[in-house]
Amino acid sequence: MNYKVIFIGLLFVFALGFVSAGSHLVSADDDFDKKYEHHEGHDKDEKDYEDIGKTVGWGTAAAIGAAGLIFPIRRSTKFMVKNFPDRKKLFISLSKFFGKYHLFIGVIALGLSITHGVVMYLDKGELEGEGMIGLAAVILMAIAGIVGAVLFKNKKAKTLRTAHTGVIALAILIGLIHIFAS
User: Fold this and answer.
1) Does the CA dihedral 95-137-161-108 come out positive or negative?
2) Domain residue ranges in the chain
3) What is the pLDDT of residues 30-66, one digit of tens each?
4) Can you give the pTM of this predicted structure?
5) How many separate helices (H) and strands (E) can be counted in the chain?
């Protein structure tokens, strides 16, 4: 059975469901004039921008997590193969899968983060404190992407690999600060 195709299909369905279900607004038939405890008083369009921005932001976090899975999988494959020889094929195929699609998922994460920033800027109309923190994380992600692109051409350069990992780790840390500040 081809687990890669199944995994990509499930990932696609999850991502599609996540994006499409993020901003559905529901109201009861005769309650249009009543305000509820979570009613913020925003215009519908403003609320839509904010909801789309938040959904894309969480999609960014999911994509960063998926791109980052290559690190613990590759680090633990030798241990897992040694201690669980019956799962050798699974761990090797997971390592190959995430190695093959790491670059693609990373580009998607960078694109989603830029989209998140633009949509949130359009919603708020200004770049506030948490927006500046997010912008710093996106800039570091872009730098890590450039280093990663050079690393893709020269896979044996240990200093490039260390720089790529270090810069993206700093970007993730700043991204977490952005999430908690929001």
Assistant:
1) positive
2) 3-17+44-181
3) 555 555 555 555 555 556 778 888 899 999 999 999 9
4) 0.70
5) 6, 0
